Amino acid sequence: MKIKVGIVGYGTIGKRVAWAVSKQPDMEVSGVVKTRPNWEVYSAIKKGYPIYTLKKSVETFRKKGIDVSGTFEDLLKDVDIIVDATPAGTGAKNKDLYSKYGVKQVFQGGEPVDLCEVSFNALVNYDRALRNECVRVVSCNTTGLVRALHALSKVSRLLSVRAVIVRRGADLKEIKKGPIEGLVLKPTKPPSHHAIDVKAVLGDLDIMTYAIVAPTTLAHMHVIRAELANNVSKEEIMQAFKTTPRIVLVNGDILSSTAELREFSKEFIREKGDIYENVIWEDSVWINGNEVMFVYAVHQEAVVVPENIDAIRALAGLITEPEESIKITDKVLGIGGWFK
Ligand code: NAD
Fold first, then answer.
1. Structural domains counted in the chain
2. pLDDT tens digits for 152-169?
3. Are residues 150 and 265 in the same domain?
4. Per the omega criterion (within 30 degrees of 0), is the bond before 190 cis?
5. Would you give the distance in Å from CA 21 to the centre of its chain?
6. Which residues contact 98 (CB under 8 A, 6 or more apart)?
7. Which of the residues 17, 134, 140, 145 is marked catalytic?
8. pTM confidence score
9. What spacing in Å lies between the alpha carbon of 75 and ligand 1's midpoint?
10. Which domain holds residue 124?
11. Is residue 140 among the annotated active site residues?
12. Is the CB of 24 under 6 A from ligand 1?
């Protein structure tokens, strides 16, 4: 029996998670909830997902010739797990309804940090999410940070982390966000929320994060400085990166920008150009005793997709080992092994 998954909020994240769910051997898309009959609903129809909407919107959808399978609540009667990928803060308002129908929930990073007991990353706390009622998959930037820091912590304990996060100003489809010029320090009083979010996953850690919003839609870029408990060698750190799932290393002589990375991904890795991995520039890795610095890119629209898939498996509880779930997800989505 496959895990029956409903997607509420079929936008940038929701549509990618739905597609990834549809490819997994142990889960299926039971339906997607759309509140508005905009262009994204036609993407769901084309992929064959049953469409659900709010009771008050059923007629509006039908008048546009869209076949509606039922209401939001009808879908809740028919699923095991909901992935809520509605705009930040909306998911929290839906939580009681999900609980009323006994449906488990995967929320996104825009929701409050205390919405669920677990702020999730598959590499770190799959076991805590196992058979839980609810998890919050942390944001794209936090997912990138957690993966990178988890890799370092395999070599030596983290004493402190300082990070500068250059954030994309908007996703490609977002016409009302910016900036279209200038770099914006946001918040102007750091730390940015990422420091708090990283601690929600990794536990107590001396971490300070600055976020700068940049006029780009392609990806984020992070500059990390970490202090470790022991002196380390470059080989040890590179080995940790190479052996951590969802991290790839690239050579700056071949790929030097997020623009080239996205184009490279479209040409050679994935048709849609989505990048699920942290992409670390290998020559940026700099070691000085117990001090490590490095730079990587995070494709904001895609990086949380494999984490959502593992979160579904953890809540369902059918696969108890994180390594096993990660292996299935990564094989199905073709993650890693870029230059093999
Ligand atoms: P989005 O605006 O692209 O998509 C949200 C979708 O939800 C839209 O289709 C909207 O019409 C729909 N919607 C709005 N209200 C709804 C409701 N009440 N019920 C059902 N659907 C509703 O947003 P997004 O970028 O996909 O972000 C979703 C969540 O994922 C947020 O928590 C965000 O913080 C998080 N996230 C976003 C990114 C990113 O880069 N876009 C990355 C990681 C995490």
1. 2
2. 999 999 999 999 999 999
3. yes
4. no
5. 14
6. 76, 82, 84, 104, 105
7. 140
8. 0.97
9. 19
10. 3-138+304-333
11. yes
12. no
